[in-house]
Every structure is written in C-alpha cells, then in structure tokens.
C-alpha cells in the first residue's frame, strides 16, 4: 500500500512536473520529494519520471501509474471533503453539469438528479445529451463536469472512471435482411454486411475500431457504409436497407420501429458504460452527485 505522502507526492509531481512546485504545494522540502519518488520507483521496479537539468517528464510506467491512481484518489479526496462538510453541517451548494450519450444512461442520470436535488436543495443539476459524433467536445469546452458514456476513453486530459454497468451488444438490421431471422450473429458475419457508421472527425480512432471495426476477426474487410451525424440517421439508413449497425441490445426498448430487427452478437464483448470527468478533478458538488449515482447503479457482476 502507498503511504499518503507517497501518493500525494507522486500525483502532484505528475501534474506539476517540477520538484520545487511539488514541494511547495505539499509543504515539504525538494529533497524530501526526491527521496519519496526514488523510494517509490524502487518499490515499483522502474523509473516513473525522466529528469534532466531542464525538465521532468513522466515515463510510460509513470503515466500508467498516474492513470490508475488518479480516479481513486480523486474519489477518496472528494468523499472525505463531503464527510467533513456533513459533520460540520455544511450543505452542498453549486451546479453540476452532467452529460449522457444513450437513453438508458439518461435514465440513470435523471434518477440520480432527482435524489440529488432532494438531498441537496441548494444545488442545481443541469443535464444534456452528448452526440457521439463529438463525444468529448463538450467536456473539453468545460461545458459538462461529468459524462456517462461508452468506454473505452483513453485521453490524457480526461479521467475514465470506474465501470458503472454493461449492456450486451447486438446488430441492428433491416427486417428483410438474412441476419434478421437468426438467433444470433458473429463478428465474422460482418464481412457479409455493410456497416453504417458515424462521422469520426472528432472521435478517437481506438473508439471507432472498438465499435465500428474495419475487419472481421479473421481479417476479412467489412464494407463501411454511410458515416452519419445523428442516431436517427442510423435508424433511417438501416430501415431502408442501406446497411446494418452495431448497437446495445437495450436499444430495442427505445428505438423499435417498423423495418428494424435487433439480433444478438454472440461473440462481441458487452458495451461498457461509466463516467468521465476532467483530469483537473471533481468539484465537491460533482463528487456528491457521483456518489448518488453509485448508490443507484446496478452493480456490475
């Protein structure tokens, strides 16, 4: 287990990339920070920082450790602040702006907002839908504090929080498509279909590969169909027989309509959902809201 000062020294130095500023923030000497980091590097078995006379940078191992530790540390710090505020009779006050990408995410976000408002009547929850065509734009513009969305998200300025829940993956196909009569299809079957996708200019490439693959597991090319801007366009293209689309099977409860059929993808991993927030950290009001979401979410098994 890391000691508190080890954890704070590492995460602060990973943020500041300067031993002097790190020491000043933690109210210790620069030599003490150097000693702590050297000891930590011996424990993990490799260098966490590259140092020279001009700059300090994180190694690949250091980046991995930072990304693994930061979300948990932020939640612990925010939870402690909330506990202290509660015992002192301080009421949470402020605005938390929450985004979501899928209707089932929106249901959880709204349910948590109702409970949050009841517990913290001095606070405000603002909720908005995030379009997958630009999944990170609103957060990077500082327009949302939290976002419930599809994983994976691996970005240097954004924290991917713990997994909240997962949904089985399926394929959305026209009702007269050969796949529509099957009990399930496989990822290999996508080689025999045209895949309706989304415009990817603002979408990470690794995310597109995860949800809209260009090749089957055996290496067969998957024909890429229209790149859409909004979900209703996907529904129209598929219902008109233009192509098929990968989808969470739960979408059937929200988007069933004539001309469409939902078929399970038997060998595809589920779609994981969780919260994102800026790497700069969570405000007390955002942390308090996130605590309520954790209360309401169905545990992942």
From TrEMBL:
Keywords: DNA-binding, Transcription, Transcription regulation
Protein name per its UniProtKB record: LysR family transcriptional regulator
The keyword DNA-binding appears for this protein: yes
Source organism superkingdom: Bacteria
Stored PANTHER family: HCA OPERON TRANSCRIPTIONAL ACTIVATOR HCAR, TRANSCRIPTIONAL DUAL REGULATOR HCAR-RELATED
Boundaries of every HTH lysR-type domain copy: 1-59
Residues forming coiled coils: none
InterPro entries: LysR_HTH_N, LysR_subst-bd, WH-like_DNA-bd_sf, WH_DNA-bd_sf
Family statement: Belongs to the LysR transcriptional regulatory family.
């Amino acid at each position: 287990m890391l000691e508190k000062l080890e954890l704070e020294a590492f995460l602060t130095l990973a943020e500041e990339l300067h031993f002097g500023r790190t020491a000043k923030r933690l109210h210790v000497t620069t030599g003490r920070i150097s000693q702590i980091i050297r000891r930590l590097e011996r424990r993990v078995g490799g260098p966490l920082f590259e140092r020279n006379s001009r700059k300090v940078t994180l190694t690949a191992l250091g980046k991995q450790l930072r990304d693994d530790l930061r979300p948990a540390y932020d939640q612990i710090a925010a939870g402690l602040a909330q506990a202290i505020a509660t015992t002192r009779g301080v009421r949470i006050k402020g605005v938390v702006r929450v985004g979501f990408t899928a209707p089932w995410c929106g249901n959880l976000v709204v349910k948590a907002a109702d409970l949050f408002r009841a517990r913290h009547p001095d606070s405000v929850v603002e909720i908005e839908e995030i379009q997958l065509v630009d999944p990170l734009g609103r957060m990077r513009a500082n327009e949302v504090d939290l976002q419930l969305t599809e994983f994976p998200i691996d970005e240097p300025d954004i924290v991917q929080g713990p997994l909240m829940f997962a949904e089985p993956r399926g394929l959305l196909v026209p009702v007269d498509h050969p796949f529509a009569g099957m009990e399930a299809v496989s990822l290999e079957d996508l080689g025999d279909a045209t895949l309706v996708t989304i415009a990817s200019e603002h979408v990470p490439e690794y995310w597109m590969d995860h949800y809209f693959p260009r090749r089957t597991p055996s290496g067969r090319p998957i024909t890429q169909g229209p790149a859409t801007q909004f979900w209703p366009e996907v529904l129209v293209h598929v219902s008109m027989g233009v192509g098929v689309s990968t989808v969470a099977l739960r979408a059937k409860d929200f988007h069933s309509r004539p001309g469409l059929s939902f078929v399970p993808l038997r060998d595809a991993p589920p779609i994981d959902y969780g919260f994102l927030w800026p790497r700069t950290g969570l405000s007390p009001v955002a942390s308090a809201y996130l605590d309520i979401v954790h209360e309401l979410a169905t545990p992942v098994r």
